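Repro:
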Amino acid sequence: MSTRLLAGRYELIERIGEGGMAVVYKAKDRLLNRFVAIKILKPEFTKDVKVIESFRRESQAAASLSHPNIVNVYDVGKEGNIYYIVMELIEGSVLSDIIKEEGALEPRRAVAIAKQIAAALSVAHKNQIIHRDVKPHNILITKDGVAKITDFGIAKAVTSSTMTVNQTGTIMGSVHYFSPEQAREAMWMRSRISIRWASSSTRCSPARYLSMRKIRWRWR
């Protein structure tokens, strides 16, 4: 894309990633003279109130947390019909891409990654935030082997250590990584989901990159 300046300071350089709702660019912060990553909401979603709310929630959830294994959020803004989040630029790879290229990870390496993500989620939970979509696609690995979790787009602030399924009763998360309790309660549209259940996706992710198999739960 041609060079564009956001908010008079962020110079977009190149596209480095893309998800279902947003595109991520490498950019240069001219004010602080550093490289950053900028997530920009796709044009087709800029009039969708629910998507915009999810985008806003991601910036607020991540910005409220400070931990070496959580991708830092530096800024959030809107310019015209462009919604964007400015984040720490990670020089490395997405864990899901590493798994595709290298296959199942060596156990010691997998455990090291899992411990780092567990530490990050522990901080989030202490701040009453549940990520709700922990999976290899949302874990970045730096060139030094440091694991960093990102994408708090469907994170949920918790009250009294519990949270409910969203207002429509629709399950939030990725089907291969959420717990049987979450899916069961979403289908019944009634009970509450706790931080204890949110840890299921944390356990599924290491199982995924150790075995290269998607987790299949047995329903009772």
